[in-house]
Amino acid sequence: MKHARIVAAIGLAAFAHASAPAQAPKAAAARDWSRAVAATPEGGFRVGNPNATVKVVEYGSLTCGHCAHFAEEGYPKLLQDYVKTGRVSFEFRNYIRDPFDAVAALLSRCAGTGDYFAATDAMFAAQSQWIGKLQALPAAERQRMVQLSPAEGFPQIAAASGLAPIAAKHGVTAAKAKTCLTDRARLETLLTLRQKAIETYNLEYTPTFLINGKKVDADGWARLEPLLKPGG
């Protein structure tokens, strides 16, 4: 009898367990693709899903006012509303226009893949300040620095403009900055990137945007965003 009660108890417990509603498995959290950054074979830096349906590329210059405006107005919305979901990726390719631009590009790239976009954003945000410092120099002094070899002149430009302290906030120490600014191979990478943009896309101005490899008629966020939407 005692044995029967034990069996019955086990049976009831098993029945209760079996009849309890099964808990649905927790849905996996959606990946935040705005945190995925990688260097690209083309020489740029991409944020977002490498397999995104819509791939946006910007050829931009760190001395370009319109590029700075896009970085302030459009880039945050692009990240939050499009890149984060994984449907759109964004790649920035430096298009250098002058030695001052080259110095800024070299320093932002010197920050490394993880800090590249943060360093680039910081330089865009402070663009008027560091360009203002360069413009405040006597024309003869600017010309002197430009006429020096890159190995000599670039570190001087970085110091005179205030770009070096901006880069330092993103992990670019003085020693690291000197290495990046005086390494001819790094400069050649930027020059090659520029030349390929001209040859492949007949690039004439910045910013220039590509969507899935094709140049589009958009010079800012207002004209770019509609092209990112389905059917755009």
TrEMBL record:
It comes from Allosphingosinicella flava. This is Thioredoxin domain-containing protein. InterPro entries: Thioredoxin-like_fold, Thioredoxin-like_sf. Gene3D superfamilies: 1.10.40.110, Glutaredoxin. Pfam families: Thioredoxin_4. Residues 1-24 form the signal peptide. Residues 43-228 form the Thioredoxin-like fold domain. Keywords: Signal.
